[in-house]
């Protein structure tokens, strides 16, 4: 593990990262999803794609990269861009899972790899809509502290700045960004994904003109069991 510290927009960041195949000439960057970390991506792909230098990083606020600010998805893209510049990385291939897929899209790599990417707004279950309604109602009456009872266990463990960041990024419609992406894209999806539905994956594939879509049996983390085949498709599908 290595650390890279830098200042961006008068804010200080320290990014934890690992590099595999350090002497390879082309790079592939892996961006994890919300609540995840670089170790998940590394466990899936580090044994494959031998001709590429793998760059695994913990995005700010996850894994071993601390964060004390309220961020947006655009902020995450700027942080990653600065980090990649500082380690002299190209943007040959950037692979993003879930939230990382949105960040990867904003980075505009030569080859974009999306793994069950977030970015398509989906209908919320009635139970979720009711939680949001009552949380907003409590905020109106100045009872913000009581809104915590409506948070999921995962959200409740977040620091206040990461919870505010989560609210910034959770309901974004990235359709325009997908439509505007002009480079090569490989899109992979889990057929039983309940976090980002298969239909969302098909929609993203229809929005990105130069894209190929492949689905696998599995859930939101389908790539953990299909990383070998995905890696082969990346090797054969990049421009």
UniProtKB/TrEMBL annotation:
Keywords: Hydrolase. Signal peptide: none annotated. One of its GO terms (molecular function) is hydrolase activity. Residues 28-120 form the AB hydrolase-1 domain. One of its GO terms (cellular component) is membrane. It comes from the Bacteria. Transmembrane segments: none annotated. Pfam families: Abhydrolase_6 (PF12697). PANTHER family: AB HYDROLASE SUPERFAMILY PROTEIN YCLE (PTHR43798:SF31), MONOACYLGLYCEROL LIPASE (PTHR43798). This is 2-hydroxy-6-oxohepta-2,4-dienoate hydrolase. InterPro entries: AB_hydrolase_1, AB_hydrolase_fold, AB_hydrolase_sf. It comes from Aliarcobacter vitoriensis.
